[in-house]
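Box 3.1 A note on notation
Throughout this textbook, protein chains are presented in two layers. The first layer is the amino acid sequence; the second is a token string describing backbone geometry. Keep the layers aligned when reading.
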Amino acid sequence: MSKSHLVNVLGGAVRHGILQGSGFLLSLLVVRGHSEALWGGFALLQLQVGLCALVANWGHRDFLLRRFAERPGGENRLWWNNLASRAWILGVAAAVPASLNRNDPWLAALLCLWLAALFASQSIEVWIVRFQGFAWAAWAEGAGLLATILALAATFPGWDLRVLAFCWTIGALGRLAILLAIFGPALRPVGEGRWDPSQLAEGWPFFLLALSGMLMSRLDVLSVGAALDDAATGRYQVMMGHFIALQVPAAFLTAPFVRHLYRLPRKSLYRFAARLAASGLAVLSVAGPLCWASLRWGYGFGDLPWTLSMAGPLFAFPTYLYVPLMYGLYRQKKEKKVLAVGLLVAVAGALLSYGLALTTMGMMGGWLAQTILQWTVLFFYLLI
């Protein structure tokens, strides 16, 4: 591995570590500083904002990265045209949290501002990948986390949903400010961004793919929330957040090579996936028990059996195999098949999570459903 690739891998690792670590740290502060029920209620607000941001971003990152790889040149104009084409979607998406929280205007306003900052930050993501600026992006994530923690400290102990939304909005604005400072020169427009509906049409499959991915990883929270109370939902969200974090190394180990994965033949992708899976086994053998220890002693979930240390690795391991295969399917223009798989297993997983959560399994029913979902995705990616 060259020095530049090593720097990018380490930068990506630090960035993803901050992203996942911030989720653990902030949820721990809320659970320990207030209650599992408050975190459970706030997790549903996070889901609102995240889903609306995903809709507003319209799968632009993977669409633009593929366009950059296929037709080098004119990236700046293409990005601005894409941003202008998506701007109206942000307005429509913002109406969702505004409407759902209309009984609390201040909360609704904070969620909309948080959404706007998240939209802008995610729009810069394509430049982070394009210029391999993962180390710089880590600084932005760190600044956002620090801003959120300071806001939480300043408002303690009067935490409620509105206060938490305020703190997360402060963090999102801090992250955006750093990203603009770092990548500002690349964002200077060459001409004016213009409405280009063809970009939305071409980005549609990528949006649906991103939507199906989010539904696969987040719809279960809604399902479990519908079956269980806020306290149990909060505990489930924390547990699955730990397990989803075990998937993150697959993403940051792959990120520096995304541009190349779009060009690799299938056999080379299989070799890359095999190396990634070997790395995954090493990571999961250590991280699985650490997750159990964090939940049992860090969060105070003292009734969790030690066998739960295997639950996270069983859930996460398929990711190390199917992430490279997914990019290979993109290269072969099989987005529709990937989408069909994603939507099918997301809906099936949500129904199964709800059904199993209603049984005596409780939140472990949700885990079992999501684990079955992950292995099903791997099976279908190998099949198609």
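The CA atoms of residues 218 and 237 lie 9 Å apart. The first helix runs from residue 3 to 33.
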